[in-house]
Amino acid sequence: MKRTIQRGFAVALTGLVAASCGAKTGLLAPDPESEPPGECVSLQATATIADLDVFTMMDASGSMEYETADGTTKWESVRSALASFFLDPESAGIGVALTFFPVVDPVVPETCEDPIECGGVIDGCKKYAFCFPDGGDFCETDQDCADAGFPTDTCDRLGFCAFDSDQVCLLEQNLGCESFQGDCADVGLCENHFDCKISTYEEPVVDVTLLPDGAATVIGAIDAHVPDGGTTTLPALAGAIQRAAAWTAANPDHKAIVVLATDGLPTNCDPALDGDNPQEGIQHLVDVAAEGAKAGVQTFVIGVFNAEEQAEAAPNLDAIAVGGGTESAYLISTEANVADEFRKALNEVRITAKSCEFGIPLIDGALPNLDKLVVRITPPNGEPVTVERVKSAAACHPTTGGFYYDTDPDGPVKPGRVILCPASCGLFGTAADRKVELLVSCE
Fold this sequence. Notes:
Number of helices: 9
Number of strands: 22
Largest sheet: 6 strands, mixed
Shape: elongated
Radius of gyration: 26 Å
């Protein structure tokens, strides 16, 4: 794991304390003959952690069927980890939504010999080539192989075995097919076989459902799905973030996050991938994750890779995670116990996502005076520390911390949550008697 695990906590709402202050006190209903509401309302509340909703975007590409070191497939291992997480008593009360990618367009075939088979889309039938015999790169000309460091290689066309359309082969060499699979056929892939519309991925297979009661529904959806196809990460991530942002806007006292679980870099649905280099699509994913973070939706990334893939995947997935407002991606080796390591990553995500955000209590159905609200933290066996507001996450001081609201109080969408800066969140210990209070004083 690339992060230090922070211990979670639960802070129970102990009540709103009425403080004498002119004609207004605490949460008491206003006297019709007293001053107009809102002029002076005092608040002292032990804060409650914001409700957490996890929008899980699960990679269901064909490579998820590859085996790990213990003989199970990546898909089976991730399914096992998710099931354990959903059924964990510590996850009770969390909302979960689930979406898979890719989504296949049932009208468009996967393989093709001519663009007309792909609906007549220009260049829709993509035929690939590979540097042979020493190279490991896709190419268009022999010069591409030389430029990649393989001057004696030729750029050989790829096809699929005539009797086994899942088996890739070298067309010009007629290599890669066993006798029962037939000859290597001149077959390409329909680029539009996979649905690339963001709106498609905004609609979860399972919409937000509370754990643990909803666990069976989510696990059942995973069991009913069969991994296949390419990696349409860009529209998938964009759709999940847009859905999570809309959910948060409708439920301002909730915190919504996106968990991107994947075993590969993007292969489809991004114009930056025309050069057949999956790293070229990373910047678009970083930009999408960053827009989500601005809207208050963090993106957590969990990747499953073999040792050879990890070196390439690590900086790319880290970049997406950082763009999404989290420290780094969780990378899991297929040589390890994938189910256990994936579950540990999910547990850490749960702790990290819930640790520092609190719902703002309403007074008679309205927000308290947000300009006067302060946060007071009492660490275990420590003195209370008052935390004052900063404008945004970017304004958090590295040592004195602070807090900010999930949205601008002067904007069109009123805040629903208080978010502690990292330094202030670090005041928490592991004892059960830690306390966070929200205070508004009339003085």
